[in-house]
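#onboarding

Welcome to the new folks! Below is a worked example of what a typical request in this channel looks like: someone posts a single protein sequence, and someone else replies with the predicted structure as tokens. Don't worry about understanding the tokens yet, we'll cover that in week two.

Example request:
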Amino acid sequence: MCHFIEHMIFKGTEKRKVREMAREIESLGGTINAYTSYDQTVYHITIASRYADTALDILADAVQYSTFDPLELGKEREVILEEIRMGKDNPSNQLFKQTMATLFRNHPYRRPVIGFENTIKAITRDQMVSFFKKWYVPSRVVFIAVGDFNLSEMENKLKETFKEFKASSESLPKRMQEPEQMGVRSIFSQGNFKETYLQIAFPISSATHEDTPSLDVLSYILGGGETSRLVQKVKLEKGLVNSISASSMTPKDPGAFIIGATLPAENVEKALEAILREVIRLGQGGVTAEELYRVKVNIESDLIYDRQTVQGEARKIGYYGVITDDVQFEKEYMRRVRLLQSEEIQKIVKKYFENSRMVISLLIPSEKADFLKTLSLNSMVEKVKFDEPFTEKKEKPTVFKTVLDNGIRLILKENRSIPIVSLQASFLGGVRFEKETQNGINQFMAVMLTKGTENDSSLEIAKKVERMAGSLNGFSGNNSFGLTFTFLSQHFEEAFSLFTEVIKRPSFDSEEMEKRRRLILASLRQQEDNLGRMVFKLFRKTLFEKHPYRMDTLGTLESIQSLTQKDLQEYYRQIVAPENMVVTVVGDVDTTQVLLSVKKGFGGLPRGSFVPPSIPHEQSFQKMKRAEIYKEKEQAHFVLGFLGTTLQDRDRYALEVLDASLSGQGGRLFYELRDKESLAYALGFTASPNLDPGYISVYMGTHPDKLEKAIEGVLRELKKVKEEGLAEEEVERAKRYLIGNFEIGLQTNGAQANQMSLDELYGSGFDYYQRYPQEIQKVSREDVHRVAKKYFNLEAYTLAIIRPPREKKE
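Example response:
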């Protein structure tokens, strides 16, 4: 009935005809809609604040004076019947209704919100009007307004608009209490489905119960996204399901915890057992600090994102008002979420997850109907005891590392979720190993690496890679050099053979070399047009007086023109040695096959005498260093900065948090210097650690007339940070950003291979990516203030400027 009324509420009043409400709101750029759930019906309008009076009038008119036109009622009856029929074609919809009808025997939650065909067909207009007058009354309405309006004015308008709204003495009947479940309940259905759909449900608490925050956190840990336990173990590692999720449904009365999956029918028993064992493992072993932190951040961020729009905020406040009788409920809820510890999650598992309280709900394709006869889920459930100590076979580690006899480090991670493999070979090298006369040799070598071998030409290599739907590229940077290859896993043997061929026998063909030399020289000349890059080159050259970091990765016109085929060959032999090599494999592979391939491909390389070059140490400086270049351009660019720290120094974490706090459009520098003072059109803060000390810098692009004021503004803001530090909220926001951005960045096999390969190469360890979030989380406001005071030497900084000639006038 409530859902039917929802369809009718905007279908005309004594004042407005059918469709006039929606037409009026939409003509003002707004939206009008409604929805019904188990515990509430919501009618809502979002509109520009200047038209708020119109929205209030329409909403009040609909709720008080809907006419329930008989003709429209007949039309909407057919619409809802069609909606019900459409729901029958949706397996997820069907499964949920089946699950709820099995989990609840007495409570209204057992019935679908939309109703049944027979009830919708039977409802008369008189019944609807009577129901509406009885229950849609002031004492049962929560009115929410969020946005740009005057509070007292809105209250007065509300009183005036609803002054004729008649009260009712009717009290709500008590809902039926659900008796305690005493055994496993299972229900199977078959139909015209392509996949098998499974839900496992347990009765749990209501929204206001003290256990609700723990249950919500548990649902995230078990099935809330790619990093959740069920996704990682049951879907990706064991491959038993195609999709899996968990949700904690806590409405006004006690609700349901539901684990849902899609899978092949033949996997049902194995998947069910694997799911339950993951729940038991969590209940007995608890959750990690990193898991708990990540989930808390996600829950809080979801609530924060709701505040972005007035409709999101209104919907949330309305929900709290109706379901919890407390529009401030979120504050207490989040307080309890933040305080949660692993032990409380374990208690929740033991309290709610028992065999005897379980519902198993299945939809199976009709062609698999015979399979239903062979299912013995109850007996399987019986052997998985929630109250017995859980032991499991020792599984292979997620990431596998070994060292070959010749010193090559191999890192391997199996990921069977998608048929893609990424390979990476990394070597210490890069600008850090370069001499001034050979600046750019690593980048030149990286370009040439895929441009021919002793057996294949550049074109033949390109054709092979394309046939594998792959991407093969050399890379170089400040500290390393190497090769990456991503391809479809069905081509593994051919791809690995090509990968080893390119690394072991590059030709550095002289003809190809001249082609690439022209392109590199063209890129170097094009740099002259990129003032942002040019000013950073000037900054590094001024900041670093001795260290190779002062040079550009591309090199110089002079050095690139002077490099010979012999130079590349000799340098390559120096750094491509087994003891300086990390091979990383991530993707849809078999560990045994990879080990054999790596040993066959690289095991014969002789251990050489790799000796890294002597690298000059950069001395700190005690006075300001300034460099200025004049260009006939419209804008001025500058970089102001200091010597930074290394990848192994613990200061790097606090500096990264400082970087995230000051960077970006939400950062302090952007707000103070661009938004408030309009001093810059381009602005950025960077804290860049390296194998040797890197740098910390602020970059700005500004109008030449504002240059000195912009520099003063940067120094002022850095001084403020140095003296006062950052606010706690700035630090926490930065930490959340760093952790979230880091984890998002590791979605692809290639990204994981690159991260593990370079971390191992640089001495952090291949598993560093697992520790990074905890290291960031440890950073305190005091740590950030300490590094600001330590590194922001405002008496001895480096300033690089590119600007138009001083005499140039607008």
